[in-house]
Design brief:
This protein has 185 residues and is of the alpha+beta class. The chain folds into two domains: 145 residues, Alpha-Beta Complex (Spore Coat Polysaccharide Biosynthesis Protein SpsA, Chain A); 38 residues, no CATH class. The chain has seven helices and eight strands, in the order ααββαββββααββαα. The strands form two sheets. It has a six-stranded mixed sheet. The protein has a two-stranded antiparallel ribbon with strand order 2-8. The protein is elongated. The chain starts with a helix and ends in a 6-residue tail after the last helix.
Length: 185
């Protein structure tokens, strides 16, 4: 992902920018991105969206090591990409929403290889954090992970059940599937 963000530098120039991961959907009264923008305007520093995940899932995410906290806003000591279980500094996981100062591009441009043998955005954010404070904001709202098959299926079913024009047909379809002998436990 680091290389993908770095590739956008010619469009960003010397401005701060938002990065939104397409496999994360956030439903909130006040959009998650707007929450981060509001915090960025207060701090004038890069702000990363985070939410709490169970301890057993921290190895799937970039995790923050908070330095201090003011409400839902954290000043971050370290960013750790996909720590081994039991080695995570917290269970506050990076959730696919970022407001980044343009200085991030100089760190991404170094093309340092990190976890998974890839250029990690989290690693570049940590390098930026060593130069200037980077914040994390525990945004309000529900995050859906549609980047995994089960997360995608659960999201589609839940959102479809909320729609009057889809709900009944979906219930009929799922009932039909459950009644078939092919679907057994």
């Amino acid at each position: 992902m680091g290389h993908a963000v770095w590739s956008a530098q010619k469009f960003i120039s010397d401005e701060s920018s938002a990065v939104l991961l397409g496999d994360d959907i956030v439903r909130a009264e006040r959009p998650g991105l707007k929450q981060l923008i509001d915090e960025y305007e207060k701090t004038e520093k890069s702000v990363i969206g985070v939410q709490t995940v169970p301890d057993g899932e921290t190895n799937r995410y970039g995790i923050i090591d908070p330095l201090d906290q003011d409400g839902r806003l954290y000043r971050v000591n370290n960013f750790v990409e996909k720590p081994e279980l039991g080695q995570q500094p917290s269970n506050l996981a990076i959730m696919g929403r970022y407001i980044l100062n343009p200085e991030i591009m100089s760190f991404l441009g170094q093309h340092k290889i990190g976890a998974g043998n890839e250029i990690q955005l989290t690693d570049a954010i940590q390098m930026l954090n060593e130069k200037e404070s980077v914040y994390a904001y525990d945004f309000k709202g529900r995050r859906y992970d549609v980047g995994e098959i089960m997360g995608f299926l659960k999201t589609m079913i839940e959102m479809s059940m909320e729609r009057e024009d889809l709900k009944d047909e979906l219930i009929d379809f799922m009932t039909e599937l459950l009644n078939k002998e092919i679907v057994t436990r």
